[in-house]
Amino acid sequence: MVLSFLLQTTLTTLKDTEKFAQKLAACLKAGDCLALQGSLGAGKTTLARALLRALGVSEDVPSPTFSLAQHYDTNLGLAVHFDFYRIKDKRELEELGFDEALSDSLVLIEWPACAQSFLPKQTLWITMRMIGKTRHVTLQSADHTWENRLREAL
Ligand SMILES: Nc1ncnc2c1ncn2[C@@H]1O[C@H](COP(=O)(O)OP(=O)(O)OP(=O)(O)O)[C@@H](O)[C@H]1O
Ligand SMILES: [Mg+2]
Questions:
Q1: CA distances to 42, 100, 117, 143 from 113, in Å
Q2: Domain that holds residue 60
Q3: Greatest CA span in the chain, whole angstroms?
C-alpha cells in the first residue's frame, strides 16, 4: 500500500492538540478509520480524546490499553477507540467488532501497525513523533479523497 503524504503539523501544547482535533473532527464522518501511530507517550490517546471531545463526548475517555475497545456516542453516531497492540490475526479483530465498527462508526486505532494489512485503504494514518516537548504530526493515506477533505478543514 502506497501512502501519500498529506500534511504535517506541530503540536507543542495540549491546547494545540485541542485546536487541531477540532479542525480535523469537522471533516470526519461515520465509517472513517484513523490509525494513530507513534511510540510510547507520543500523544495518541490525547489526540483521540480531543477528537472525541470535539465530537461532543463529555464522558471520561480512558486509554483503551486494557479494554482494547471503547465505545462512544458522538455527534457523528457511534465511535470506537481501539488498541491493536496485541492483535495478531483477523479473527481477533472480528472478536473486537472491528468490521462492524467500520461499517457504521468512526474508528480510532492506537498501535495500528500490528493489524496494518487488515485496515481499509481509506485509512487516514496519523503519525506522531515527540521531539523535545513538541509532537510532530504527519497525515498520510492511500486514499486521495482525504486531500480535499483535509485541505478544506485544516
Ligand atoms: N500536544 C501535547 N502537548 C503537551 N503534552 C502532551 C501533548 N500530547 C500528549 N501530551 C502528554 O503526553 C503524555 C502521553 O500522552 P498519551 O497518553 O496521549 O500518549 P500515547 O501515545 O497514547 O501513549 P501510549 O503509547 O502509552 O498509548 C500525557 O501526559 C499527555 O498529557
Ligand atoms: Mg495511548
A1: 15, 20, 8, 18
A2: 4-143
A3: 39
* pLDDT tens string 38-70: 999 999 999 999 999 999 999 999 999 999 999
Can you say whether the dihedral through the CA atoms of 56, 29, 143, 24 is positive or negative? negative
Q: State the distance from the centre of ligand 1 to the C-alpha of 92, rounded, in angstroms.
A: 27
Instruction: Give the C-alpha separation, 132 to 151, whole Å.
Output: 28
For residue 61, is it within any domain?
yes
The reply to whether 49 falls in a domain is: yes
Q: What is the CATH number of the domain that holds 119?
A: 3.40.50.300
Q: Is 80 in the pocket of ligand 1 (CB under 6 A)?
A: no
